[in-house]
Structures
1.
Amino acid sequence: MTEFNDLRRQVETVLIVILLFLALSYGIFRAYPLLTGPSIKILNLIDGSTVANTTFQISGIATRAKEITLQGKPITIDNKGNFTETLVATYPYTILVLVATDKYGAVETKTLRVIPR
């Protein structure tokens, strides 16, 4: 009978460890957006890009972002975080500042210089 109790106790211990592991994993999964904050990925330009015309487009993806601004003005993003904006570059170069904010208040800033031909 004591062998059965020992086996039962071992099974209970293993199940408790598994449940704790699952609870901890789920907590980390749910906290991931809070820990990482928003992210901005520019798809068509890099810092120092030369654009063919003074009018150009900037497009990208903002992940985990509640809102995003370009030059201090809000821009629209779709449900997947995609955005596209048309801008005018001035000589000798234009500085673009994108700021994404998530629902927790964390901020990500990207700064690019664009040079018109």
2.
Amino acid sequence: MNIASLKEVVSAEEWQLRVDLAACYRLVALYGWSDLVFTHISARLPGPEHHFLINPYGLMFDEITASSLVKVDQQCNKIIDSPFPVNPAGFVIHSAVHEAREDIQCVLHTHTRAGVAVSAQKGGILPISQQATFVLASLAYHDYEGVAFRDEEKPRLQADLGNANFLVLRNHGLLVTGKTIADAFLQMYTFENTCRIQLDAQAGGELITVNPQIVKGVAEAMRVQTGGMGGAFAWPALIRKLDRADPSYKN
């Protein structure tokens, strides 16, 4: 695809956010969490205008670049002209989360096989792994209401999410909120592996659960694990990995 660069059109701050968000899309594809052209990762742009970046609907995640990301307002109107549409169903979920959570910059939503499978389990996320303890420390659930294209679902989704960082969309998939794009990616990495481990463990016999007191203290353990940096601790290494594979996301 030949898409004109926006590097000289937008601010340096917006450009860096575009590069990071495009990198996140490529990493999601690299780790096998994408669902063809479906699902979304959105990022809030700084400033009072309530503008967001989201994927051009119809592109595979491994095709997305900094310049191809679509800039929209809270009503999904394009701020910068783009030849690509935006998926209204995907935007309903993302706009609802951003509207309710001024503290977060990035929303990452997936339809992975493991995530959807666990979302359909009555018991949800089980306390059976170290990864699960990180998720359980900030977890919420939202019941399935069909394809999310109706604004009337927003208040219920917002109420269910509350201040949680991890959201199981029942019978649908996984969603995380991050103060940065790097935080959101690391949280989804943990969420996805939690689900994969759970399904594998359930296939192997009787399960041992983690002491609830350990789950209560996990926030401090996570802070120590990342040196207090959250996703920023792993992000530079992930960018180096991505650059070795294909640096075209920066275009």
3.
Amino acid sequence: MKALLIILLILPLITACAIGPSKRELDAEVDRLCAIDGGIRVYETVVLPPDKFNERGEINFFRPTQSENALGIEYVFKREIYYYKQGNPDFFRLHTQVYRRLDGKLLGESVFYKRGGGDLSGPWHGTSHMCPELSVKSDVMRQIFVINNEE
């Protein structure tokens, strides 16, 4: 009876370790891919009047539910998610691009890689690893759209 109980307790752990890449392997792959093309690239900044920003310094005309029209009629917003692995764990690449609609010029883009989950099941929150880390400086739109403080 004790042997059966031990097997039932250890079996999920053995199965989790035997199936697919480990969290450590996926985290290393996140870092490797991020070193190749991760981060933010701004090709042109757009200076806007202060009334286009909220009190936190974010543009106030971004409507994420509007797909490519999320930045209104003047700009095109594109966001693509490519899943290398779905489930537990997830491993994906998030590529965001902002274009000026008038001439089709790419103003800036960002690429992030993230692993989420891969932990043993339980009541706790799963772990994740992202590169580059999210911060105010990692928001491509904050770097493209800047406040004109001379008004």
